[in-house]
Amino acid sequence: MNQTRSNIWCVLKREWKGYFATPVAFVFIVIFLALIGFFTFSSQLGQFFEREEASLSSFFTWHPWIYLFLVPSVGMRLWSEERRQGTMELLLTMPVAPWHTIVGKFLASWAFLALALLLTFPVVFTTGYLGDPDYGPIVCGYIGSIFLAGGYLAVSSMTSALTRNQVISFILSVVICLFLILAGFPPVTDMLIQWAPGWLVDTVSSFSVMTHFFSFQRGVLDSRDIIFFLSLIGFCLFTTSVILRSLRTN
Amino acid sequence: MIHVEKLVKAFGPKIAVNRISFQVERGEVLGFLGPNGAGKSTTMRMITGFIPPTEGQVRVGDHNIIDQPIHAKRLMGYLPESAPCYPDMTVHGFLDFAAEIRGIRGGDRKRAIHRVVDLCFLESVLHQSVDTLSKGYRHRTCFAQSIIHDPDVLIMDEPTDGLDPNQKHEVRGIIKRMGEKKAIIFSTHILEEVEAVCSRAIIIDRGEIVANGTPDELKNRSRNAGTVHLRIGGVSGTMVREKLQQLSGVEHVTLLSEDATHAEVSVKPEARESGSLGEQISDLIHRESWRILKLNRQEGRLDEVFRDITKPDTIKEGGKAA
Ligand SMILES: Nc1ncnc2c1ncn2[C@@H]1O[C@H](COP(=O)(O)OP(=O)(O)OP(=O)(O)O)[C@@H](O)[C@H]1O
Ligand SMILES: [Mg+2]
């Protein structure tokens, strides 16, 4: 147990330092904050001010879409880069179980995304300064957002194991994440309901990150939502390990 | 320490490694030779647990690499073929990571890093980022990583590739010294290296072991191993040839050149010759009071043996088809 933890921690630390060894981390955070600020405060899109309500719904609404491109750009290098550089051979001949390295690398990127998200704290302050928001939904919204990022990231980890080409890995994971959005995106489900039975549409949309992400914003932590994201992450990381194993076998 | 038993690796229909078995004990340095694509790297990858074998067993220490990979990997250091390093790290950061993931902590880690930095002459690039290193330094960094935990078993895929002559010499020295206490396997295309470092060598061709022995044994399989050249003054070539031919253990004597002043011959021993031939020739020279102008005995040459037993593709394929 102890061994497992220290292995994961060691891989995590290395990966984390990797982000800050180059300006990539900085550039990413700036782009993320700029985009999210633009969407939230834009008078056309988020209408944060126009709504005149002390909530962050105009802020969170955009997360699934912004993450759609930014999370795969963080996750695409996870395994593609290891494969391209050949360091995978090094890492997987170290005395650690492959899943330690998968989890370690995943957690490092997740922590990095969480850091970027936490840097949006001025939005919360602004809301608090302008009005009197209910902090419950805000905290839950942040938690949901972190889980959402984790879900996308796990998908990216999986697609990055598939190829040593980062561009392909990026595109694949955008496509999969887009599917995870659209399956529960109201305009799409509204259209589906016209010709598909209701139970089917509900089943499909229950696999969507949208359904679960928005339920966080109501200010309740529903265990079903948390379980959804955790199983998405678990499933994708497990698939990553299967892909890596089959790569080595042949 | 390393037991490899009937190891097979198939990539689809292609058999890269075909029933290879050998053992390496502590104190041995095993050289892995073979043409490009023979299956050296594939074998090493299976021993180090990077790729699972299609068939066969690998045991390192008391651990099977499939059943107890972590225990087996703990005993091993591995330098992969392309000497991969994380490009976004500094040399120190990389070695620190390598030591930490192998469970070396605190003061031990500092000492371990210090030791390999000294050994591999990395002091001058210690805080340089890996992706700005020259090829040789990157290779040395990866080599350093493989010995940072002072492993009992060391697997190195072309450890001297890309090093300058001084560094090659240095690395051979390190391998040789470490070989006294460890079990080492390394692959190389440099045959002198085998003679300089290895206690035993294996030649692999198309996934199969075609020769296995000490460098001397292998050299003796050379066509011209043990052939004696003689240049004798003031005698007739035919007479010299006849006398030499009568010695036991002589396969045949060739008259190379002859004129009024001297005769030159080469004496090829029989394959099973016991080694007394030199003595016999020396006695003969003494009895006949020949005036020797030149006398030498040819050592076998590893590159000849290598070429003989690992024929280029075209020849073998042609032979098979016929
Ligand atoms: N992942 C793979 N998929 C398919 N074939 C492979 C794979 N890896 C190796 N091979 C094949 O297996 C054979 C042995 O390759 P290997 O790398 O072991 O050769 P080698 O002896 O190390 O050669 P070199 O001296 O060039 O390093 C080659 O024919 C190679 O094409
Ligand atoms: Mg090779």
Number of helices of chain B: 12
Overall mean pLDDT score of chain A? Answer: 88
CATH topology of the largest domain in chain B: Rossmann fold
What pattern of helices and strands is seen along the backbone of chain A?
HHHHHHHHHHHHHHH
Domains of chain A (count): 1
Give the number of helices of chain A: 15
**Which small-molecule species are bound to the chains here?**
adenosine-5'-triphosphate, magnesium ion
The count of strands of chain B amounts to: 14
Strand order of the largest sheet of chain B: 6-7-8-3-9-10
Helix content of chain B: 25-40%
Cα distance, first to last residue of chain B?
A: 43 Å
Give the CA-CA distance, first to last residue of chain A.
31 Å
List keywords for this structure.
heterodimer, A: about 250 residues, mainly alpha, 15 helices, B: about 325 residues, alpha/beta, Rossmann fold, Alpha-Beta Plaits, 2 domains, 6-stranded mixed β-sheet, 4-stranded antiparallel β-sheet, disordered C terminus, binds adenosine-5'-triphosphate, binds magnesium ion
Plain-language structure description:
The complex is a heterodimer of chains A (250) and B (322). The mean pLDDT of chain A is 88. Chain A has 15 helices and no strands. In chain A, 80% of the residues lie in helices and 0% in strands. Chain A is globular. Chain A has one domain (2-249). Chain B is α/β, with parallel strands linked by helices and 322 residues long. Chain B has helices at residues 40-47, 69-74, 91-101, 106-119, 135-146, 165-178, 191-197, 215-220, 237-245, 277-288, 302-309, 313-321; strands at 2-11, 14-24, 29-33, 55-60, 63-64, 76-79, 153-157, 183-187, 200-205, 208-213, 228-233, 250-258, 262-269, 291-297. Magnesium ion binds at residues 40-41, 81, 157 of chain B.
